[in-house]
Amino acid sequence: MIGFDAILSSFAAALHYESIAIILGGVLLGYIVGVIPGLNRAVAIAIAIPLTFYMSAYAAIAFLIGLSKGTAAGSAVSAILLNTPGEPSSAATCLDGFPMARAGKPRKALKVGLLASVVGDLLATLLLIAVAIPFASVALKFGPYELAAILIFALVFIAGMAGGSFLKGLAAGGMGVILGTVGLDPETGAARLTFGYAELMEGVPILPLVIGTLALAEMFVQLDEYRRNKGASVIKLSHDKADDLSFQEFKATLPTVFKSTGVGAFVGALPGLGPSVGAFMAYGLAKRSAKDPDSFGKGNPNGIAAAEAADNAVIPASYIPLFGLGIPGSVSAALLVGAFMIHGIQVGPLMLRDHPEMLFTLFSGMIVASLLMLAVGWYGLRIFAKVTSVPPHIVIPVVIFLCLAGIQVQGYGTFGLVTVFAFAIFGYFLKKFDYSFVTFLVAFIVTPMLEMNLRQAVILSGGDIAILLNRPIALAFVVFTALMALHLGWSGYRQWRQKRLEASGN
Amino acid sequence: MNFWSGLGVAALAVLLLTWIIPTYGGRGFAVGMHPRTLATLGAWVMLACALALALLSAIALLRRRLAFFRLPELGHLWHQTWPFLFVLGFIVLVDRFPLTWVAPFMIGSLLLLLGERRWHVVLLTAVIPALGLYGLTAHLMRIGVV
Prior knowledge:
The structure holds two protein chains of two kinds. Chain A is mostly helical. Chain A is 74% helix and 1% strand. Chain A has one domain. Chain A has a two-stranded antiparallel ribbon with strand order 1-2. In chain A, a hairpin with a 6-residue loop joins strand 1 and strand 2. The model of chain A has no long low-confidence stretch (mean pLDDT 86). Chain B contains five helices and no strands. Chain A: It holds the Pfam family TctA. Chain A: It comes from Billgrantia ethanolica.
């Protein structure tokens, strides 16, 4: 286990000026992306991954984590000033943020949002550090039976919880599993689903897949929506002293911030739920427990604080299953796995054994990112408020160009461009027909690990399923998976029956 | 929507199970698990879920007496299709000419198509990203990465 000196040296590495500059770059870029409506965290990370190819592994991941955190905080700006959330998870911020800004207090609303974001993010990061390491220490003792059972459980859980239909979630997961098996079989060396293309021997290249399905497909969706939503008006920031946030006003929101951070961290730690669920749950809780629930939706600062604290707490908490078990619970966590893979590092409990210094430096970098988020947000408030006026018809062509340039610069050539285009069509249909993208991406990412563990489990057991009786943890997860599938199937059936009854009643 | 997407996914799963995975899914002797097993399992999951989705949607459509098939409006269809054709055309151009040459043309023409008429906005938006890419490529070549 890593010693105290190593922890100190990891903090020193994170506080090195080069490290700070990289994290600052990530936070700044994330803020700008978050502020621009239509660009989201997944698009930003997908486009930024090619930029990190030439960085060291730590710098690349720190940059992407900074970016991820920056987008979460930045998306509140457009939610408050434009009533258009930069990220879907900031939709809850609009409920009170926009009325407060319209009532002549835009700066106050932005500052409440920023401080709640930073506190939520920082506390959830500390929770991640406290929980992930004991989690990973336990997970290191797991064998292939346990890991295979946990991975299958996680996939079913994500399919059920990621929103939308459970059936669509599972179907998307099935597609992810199939694409995850493409390439040379690690045991027999047989080429699987490569269709004779040497480029597919090592599997479907992750970069064209994520850029195509996340960024380029999103731009096609945006182009479709742009026709319908042209011209939104932005609230301008004033220099009015009455619009400043006082310490007393901020202090009054602190209990809500702490409660909402707890909600966000809990939701984030469960794979698949995502920040939107966390933000709305925290908002609902704040409203229910408030003395004046009627003031919510009319510009109550506690509404902004609840939504933003939970939204930002979800992101670090979603890294708990990632660093603890190697299971990415969200799209941004899955993209981080991709970035780790590109740099030759297997993320998960093995990181604690093989790269403990890197793990601790990353944790330290995350704390630095939280603090930089505060500085960037506080001093850049007016600039970011101006960025919200960048129209989507300027953003879309530039992002499409960046998607294709990212592939070209990495030397994927025509094959990469055609792959990115094919995945853009695939991603467009996933979005249009509401198939769970998280389940697809997580299934694609974890399939090699799932296959390796399943294969080892089959070989070790000699095909005898009764061996599970001697592996209580694996057996428990198999039972949980079956119960979960039954529960989700049953609740889906009840919802369908309810809708049918309502339709026949009408 | 659910009915047709369910049928589409089910058709894809059938294609995978009957032709693609058996032909291209990998051959050879394996101890324990065959190279095709996991892909086949994934395709079965897709098929089962998609069929269930199509079936449930069909029942809902029948009960509400809604039409199974509605022709989409041509204008709407064209609006959804042209961005794909535009990017495809751009990919064909990139295959023949350097990206830094094609990029300003691509960004500028898309801006014009989206209704931007201020020449300075078109010019700056088209040129700045291409210049950035040129600088990055030159730097990467100088340090020997590309």
